[in-house]
Amino acid sequence: MLFDKDSLYNTDPIEEIREIHWDYIVVGTGIGGSCSGYLAAKTGAKVLFLEKGYPPQEEYKGLYPEEKQKKITQNFVSTLDPIEALKSNRSHEVFFKKNNFQRYKPFTPFLGSGPGGSSALYGMVMERFLEENIAPISMEEFQLYYEKAEQLFSVKKGEELPPLNSHLEKISAQFAAIDIPLYRLPLAYRADKDCEYCQSYLCNKNCKVDASIAALQPALEFKNCKILYGVLVKKIFTDSSQVKNIQISLNGIEETLNCKYLLLAAGGLQSPIILLNSKNTFWPQGVGNQNNNVGKYLTRHLIDLYVFNNFENLTQGYFEKSFGSSIFYQKNKEKYGTFQSFGKLPPGEMLWNQTLLDINEFYFYLTKPLLSLVKNTVVNYLNNLRLRLCMSSIMEDTPSRDNSLFLIEKKPVIQYKITPEDLQRLKKFRKLLAAKLKPLQYRRLDQAHNITRLAHASGTCRMSDHESTGVVGSDYKVFGINNLFILDSSILPKSGGTNPSLTIAAHSIRWATQHFKRFAL
Fold it and tell me: pTM higher than 0.85, yes or no?
């Protein structure tokens, strides 16, 4: 245990939790876990949430934890202290990736760990996927669940959004003048005139409607619903076709919990890890992994940042992550991506330290001493970029079986390489944007190749019509296991061209509708 929160937040003794045979145990409180658990609790079922993180501390809201750490230590560090990470909803778990020399380099993905999961950290954009990205389900059927998900998360669109301020109207006009019409992104938030559109850190005004606010907190109001924080799910015990119980670690002590149904919603990276760690005589490669599909087809978004010189000294209103353009999504019979406002860039020293980590990654060790000589100049420059408009290009990748997550000596390893076809498409997308943006002064910050920017990881337990090509069916049930469902980004067959949050929520509502044989909201 990293710090003593269990006694403060886990109000129900583990002895009592252990004795209950739960109807549903939900692993993870991100969008998929919170929504599905909430809808199950509404039926009167006994629901237990298991969350790896802890409720965030108030003083960590409204800023990057690195900023808080700087105030404490007067010095940024290259890696965020694990305690600081947990207090601010950030994951501190270290993963390993393979590089070109077949060595393994550690990195920490930017993921949520705590109530609401990553939805508590990222921006409030909740946009629908195209029909081709939700197959094998048809849009005709799925539309209803999108509508219900928008209702649950208080998503505002079009005229429901507050009007642009004069500065953003000017920006919109300048993009329109170069034939890049901008539209307002659908946002999950409760209107606040001083909303800061908190991107990459916790909201301190509760105007961001994340999974905790929309579903977890309402679920915990039911007497039949409980939550345990600081839980590490070690293993799922099964026979040939049924989950029997699960093994967890709490406060360093192993416990066994029982349930009728297990809902796995730990995210695109953690859910496959739990399955792979659950080997037994019936499932020698891991639960649900009879065809070696668990962890395969890892998808992500290929993201570059564009910082514009024209829009300087921006006030708070400029940082809204609230507008974008889709004119590049389908262009010249080829699919590229979306172009959206990014929000405020991280602090300069945080970017500087990440640069040092990236340099280590590429083995430019000899340049590191030289960089220390120019640190102040570079940090000042990076902080200057924070005062400028930042946009991002978001391109979905093509699912490849070679891109995968697997375990070596129980350590999670990520292997990812942009496919040659996607590489060509990315180059064309960059050229297309460069031609359009030429009248505006900008600097492109290439991030698409950086695997540590593992934006919106998905696909590792993909949904399919057949177990030979997937891990779950369209009923969300793991192939071969009657009472194990997966409800998170890992089931998405494609990454789509925008934030997957709304799609995950819609899948959770669809699961509840099917499972309970009636509409759940």
Answer: yes
